[in-house]
Amino acid sequence: MKQDLILNLYRIMKRIRLVEEEIALQYPKWEMRCPTHLSIGQEAVAAALSMCIRKDDFAVSTHRGHAHYLAKGGSLKSMIAEIYGKSTGCSRGKGGSMHLIDKDVGFMGTSAIVGNSIPIGVGLALSAHLNFTDQISCVFLGDGATEEGVFYESVNFAVLKNLPVIFICENNLYSVYSPLEVRQPKGRKISKMVESIGATSLSGDGNDVTNCYRIFRNSVNSVRSGLGPYFIEFFTYRYKEHCGHEYDNNLGYRSVAEFETWKKRDPIELCKKQLLETDLSLIRKLDKIDQIIKEEISDAFLFAQNSPFPEPQEAFSGLYADS
Amino acid sequence: MKMTQIITYAEAIQQAIQNAMDLDDGVICFGLGVTDPKGIFGTTLGLEKEFGKKRVFDMPASENAMTGIAIGASLNGIKPVMTHQRLDFFLLAMDQLVNGASKLHYMFGKQLNVPITIRLILGRGWGQGPTHSQSLQAWFSHIPGLKVVMPTTPYDAKGLLLSSIFDLNPVIFIEHRWLHSSIGEVPKGDYRIPLHSALQISSGKDITIVSMSYLTIEAKKATNFLKTKNIHCDLIDLRSIKPIDWKCIYDSVERTGRLLVLDSGFTTGSVSGEVIARVSMDLYQKLKSPPSRMACPDFPEPTSYALTKDYYISAGDIAKKITSILEVPSEEIDNFLPKPAPHDTPGDYFKGPF
Ligand SMILES: Cc1ncc(C[n+]2csc(CCOP(=O)(O)OP(=O)(O)O)c2C)c(N)n1
Ligand SMILES: [Mg+2]
């Protein structure tokens, strides 16, 4: 794989990581007053996809959507402002962290209800199909969402109509504090199960960004050329608590050993190692990348903090679309 | 040994489930997070340990199927208590609830009955936003065959939950998240509060206030303040949204001739609308002024801190409304009942999670 490409993957992941870490740092000032689900540890899948799709492709996501929004090209400033509840936010303060949107880049929204955006993504794929375009639709979901009936119904329809959709399941082993073993039968392979519905299905290491990239390059090509839906299950891990800025290993629902094992396979560290193994002098380049990202992030936070709140009366407008 | 204790609303819920499971081996308790370290805001803590994994369990994120499964089990001697951390998550299960649970007894000529209890928690504050804050008791009360309760105090929470669990019909049991840490005196052991009884909290000749759930807390502040201004309110906490205790409301309105209904749901099609409709039809002659209501605006709850400032009804708003109905001055209300700040938490004591 070309070095430039890997550097780009590194940059996108690192940007997501540093944004999320800044949110975690600022959160206890209690100015971002909405439930916030961080993607720290889960950056690779989003970053890899972003290098394989076009701006006019669609994506939808979940409560844990920051990484997906940024990877699709969503405006950083608008996202941070939204989390701060400002009028310059991507949903004008109506939606918060769990309702991100940037239509300019085909990011068509996230939902706070598990499974809720899955059929929306399929509907966007249907629209591409009806409009005779070669756009594809990317549906991000968690392992928990595969337990909702709407997931099966959506995959079924996508397969039935051979729609240009990729279901991207980030299996981080948990739904809130509930491990897979209290939710799904032992030995279940989500990708195998979905394969039997008729979607081309794969699973892969979601912390190895170059591996994710290879998987996406093939699957995006296939879906775009009309060969029908894909389902990809990526194994990955969230570091922070389900919702909020803190670590929660003290609660005991997952073991410190498990956490440490995953941290040793940190997607950004793995990628960095891969780069430096080929060329130690890249370290300066990486530092430079980090520096540029940090400046962008600090600009975005300043923008958000200095933006005005919406007027309280705004709450009582915007219910219906005007003709 | 003392027969009562001072405990939180969350502990009262936990005790009700514990007592019910003790009394009847058929009672089971499940829902997303029921066995997790936080135990649904403390309401299910310790149950798995005491009653075992068979009767107390976490579940897949499959709200519709799990509701149907509860219904099926209930047809054969099981009394399921299912919990959702937000009412909004239960909306995925409307088919099983509305086309199933509510109708099986009627539709099969009284041969089946569905003794399930569904606990729903209403979110509010800290940017819960459009899909984590909906107070949809009106939806459920619209469906023939369902019972709907919304307890306000720890005492009522326990007594009503025990009654709900042992009722022969499906009961929607709605808890406001801002009530979980409130405290009150609660009897030990089993006691029941009928599922059709309102509670008169204070009596006064000037106006009847009908309220529900967390709004009753705000209404109490308002009516206590007004008492110092020589305005005396009949404050009625509905407790049961379906069936409604009409006698309690009618007796009061007959005495006061005035009515204000407080509703945590959206305005249009709300329970408050039903109360006002019936009172207007049945007690028209007794009314001294048009009935009024205060409910949430017909807009989703926005997320931004700035946007929720005027969204919810506070004690000051209620007091002002009452004075305007009675056509008396409202001057000191802003001083004594200022808008809470920050307005998106129930108080400094509350440290989340939401
Ligand atoms: C229908 C519904 N049920 C339950 C919830 C509560 N909830 C919010 S996030 C979440 C976890 C979902 O797990 P998963 O899909 O694996 O996503 P992850 O949080 O791990 O990214 C749950 C259960 C919800 N928002 N919607
Ligand atoms: Mg998960």
Structural commentary:
The complex is a heterodimer of chains A (323) and B (354). In chain A, 43% of the residues lie in helices and 11% in strands. Chain A is built from 11 helices and 8 strands. Chain A has helices at 3-26, 43-50, 66-71, 76-83, 118-130, 149-160, 190-195, 209-224, 256-264, 267-278, 282-306; strands at 58-61, 107-110, 137-142, 165-171, 174-175, 178-179, 200-205, 230-235. A 6-stranded parallel β-sheet of chain A has the order 2-1-3-4-8-7, with helices on both faces. Chain A has a two-stranded antiparallel ribbon with strand order 5-6. The longest helix of chain A is centred in the last third of the chain and has 25 residues, at 282-306. Chain A is globular. With 354 residues, chain B is of the alpha/beta class. Chain B folds into 2 domains: 6-187, Rossmann fold; 199-336, Rossmann fold, CATH 3.40.50.920. Chain B is built from 13 helices and 14 strands. In chain B, the strands form 3 sheets. Chain B has a 7-stranded mixed β-sheet with strand order 3-2-4-5-7-6-12, with helices on both faces. In chain B, strands 9-11-10-13-14 form a 5-stranded mixed β-sheet, sandwiched between helices. In chain B, helix 11 (271-282) links the parallel strand 13 (259-266) and strand 14. Chain B is globular. The A-B interface holds A 33-35, 85-86, 89, 91, 93-99, 111-115, 144-145, 147-150, 175-178, 182-184, 243-244, 251-253, 309-316, 319 and B 32-33, 35-38, 57-65, 88-89, 91-92, 126-132, 297-300, 302-311, 342, 344, 353-354. Thiamine diphosphate sits between chains A (63-64, 112-114, 142-145, 172, 174-176, 242) and B (32, 61, 63, 89, 92).
Key attributes of the depicted protein:
heterodimer; A: 323 residues; alpha/beta; Rossmann fold; six-stranded parallel beta sheet; two-stranded antiparallel sheet; 8 strands; B: 354 residues; 2 domains; seven-stranded mixed beta sheet; five-stranded mixed beta sheet; 13 helices; 34% helix; globular; binds thiamine diphosphate; binds magnesium ion
